[in-house]
Amino acid sequence: MTKPAPRFRNLLIRLIAAQACYYMIVSIDLTLTGLVGMSLVPIPALMTLPLSLIVVVGTACSFIAGHAAARFGYRPVMLVGALTAIVGGVLSAIAVASHSFILFCVGTALTGGYRAVGGFLRFVASEYAPPAKREPALALVMYGGIIAAALGPFAAIAASQAAEQPYLGSCLLIAILGIGALILAATMPPATGSGVGVHKPAIQIRDRTGNPQFQQAVLVLAGSGLVMTLVMAAGPLANDHAGHGSVMGATMIQWHLVGMFAPSALSALFLKRFGTFKTNVAGALIIACGSAIGTISSSGWGMTATMMLVGVGWNVLFVAGSALLLQSYPQGRGAKLQGFTDGTTAAISATGSFAAAWLLQGLGWGGINILALTVTASILLGLTWLTIRASRRNSTEPTQPQSLATADSEDWKPPSANKRSSRGDLDTGSDFKVP
């Protein structure tokens, strides 16, 4: 059903490299888009429009990309996404050279389109991995973010200083990274997977709205994304208001990014050992610890500890939430669900990003963290309720032929014809070694 192990290992390496390109482009956008907009904007009130377009267009395209991947496979979607990054970077560079704010908005909007396909990289790994290795493979792809965290901001600044005109080199760097992403996308498998799943249509979103795993996945991914972006966006502003200096601000962001990506393999091991519910609880508790520090300390290192722990907690929740999403559909048939979940997560996360400055002014750093604690507690309560409800439903349906991980109405077979384990596709007890 799956590709031979050596070919899968090679695919995993390429996916990690593609993920590094993706997050480097994202880090350049976060580092310099606002500054470029400020230098080009004719009306001060519009200076955040280019950054907003990245988020809005990326969110909208996430839903479109999911449906396109379900119909055409991941490779064409990733190729188109990489092309938008190339064109967006070139247009942004031309805009900087010609001092055109409108053209820069067009360029950043196209770059936002590329953001919509970057999230599929982890799902490509999960679709081609052996069933028992889907979650660890998904987690390992995220290590591309470590490379981006280490190089992205510094590469953006170095590229900006390399050209005579400020920011021109950084925009061209986006196009260069887009070319790298295009080359890597061209080497990806043509379809969403191999075996029986690829010959059947993708699961419709409406067919999974009542699925407990799908509901929990959306709750965990969107909720943790909201908390993470709220704290991440407010952190540098709070650091500036507290007068800790730019060096401390850079340190905060660096440790936050390390927290977001470094624990991926550990998160996968914890998931294998303790299951999704306990892993989600652990991630929420880590975020709560970070936010608790933020409520009592506004020192530079206190803020850094908050940012790092929130990043670590987000990583744990992201891996566990993605695992729940994998459990909600048969392997190779989840592209529409993936696009919907990523789009919903992006939309809710953008709300936290946009509201961060306003909330910081009204609530302060401590108030932001109290709000983060409240949202985290709501995630835990909702997750517990959904888990209890799923357990009760399972106990009242003892003859259910398949687990929720693989149940599919049109593929239903009577128990005598179905010899699959009640655990479905997910076998978290098997071993996984880093290739």
Automatic annotation (TrEMBL):
<protein>
    <submittedName>
        <fullName>MFS family permease</fullName>
    </submittedName>
</protein>
<dbReference type="GO" id="GO:0022857">
    <property type="term" value="F:transmembrane transporter activity"/>
</dbReference>
<feature type="transmembrane region" description="Helical">
    <location>
        <begin position="217"/>
        <end position="238"/>
    </location>
</feature>
<feature type="transmembrane region" description="Helical">
    <location>
        <begin position="366"/>
        <end position="388"/>
    </location>
</feature>
<dbReference type="Pfam" id="PF07690">
    <property type="entry name" value="MFS_1"/>
</dbReference>
<feature type="transmembrane region" description="Helical">
    <location>
        <begin position="283"/>
        <end position="301"/>
    </location>
</feature>
<feature type="transmembrane region" description="Helical">
    <location>
        <begin position="77"/>
        <end position="95"/>
    </location>
</feature>
<keyword id="KW-1133">Transmembrane helix</keyword>
<feature type="compositionally biased region" description="Polar residues">
    <location>
        <begin position="396"/>
        <end position="406"/>
    </location>
</feature>
<feature type="region of interest" description="Disordered">
    <location>
        <begin position="394"/>
        <end position="435"/>
    </location>
</feature>
<feature type="transmembrane region" description="Helical">
    <location>
        <begin position="339"/>
        <end position="360"/>
    </location>
</feature>
<feature type="transmembrane region" description="Helical">
    <location>
        <begin position="253"/>
        <end position="271"/>
    </location>
</feature>
<feature type="transmembrane region" description="Helical">
    <location>
        <begin position="166"/>
        <end position="186"/>
    </location>
</feature>
<feature type="transmembrane region" description="Helical">
    <location>
        <begin position="137"/>
        <end position="160"/>
    </location>
</feature>
<feature type="transmembrane region" description="Helical">
    <location>
        <begin position="21"/>
        <end position="43"/>
    </location>
</feature>
<dbReference type="GO" id="GO:0005886">
    <property type="term" value="C:plasma membrane"/>
</dbReference>
<dbReference type="InterPro" id="IPR020846">
    <property type="entry name" value="MFS_dom"/>
</dbReference>
<dbReference type="InterPro" id="IPR011701">
    <property type="entry name" value="MFS"/>
</dbReference>
<keyword id="KW-0472">Membrane</keyword>
<feature type="transmembrane region" description="Helical">
    <location>
        <begin position="49"/>
        <end position="70"/>
    </location>
</feature>
<feature type="transmembrane region" description="Helical">
    <location>
        <begin position="101"/>
        <end position="125"/>
    </location>
</feature>
<feature type="transmembrane region" description="Helical">
    <location>
        <begin position="307"/>
        <end position="327"/>
    </location>
</feature>
<feature type="domain" description="Major facilitator superfamily (MFS) profile">
    <location>
        <begin position="1"/>
        <end position="392"/>
    </location>
</feature>
<dbReference type="InterPro" id="IPR036259">
    <property type="entry name" value="MFS_trans_sf"/>
</dbReference>
<keyword id="KW-0812">Transmembrane</keyword>
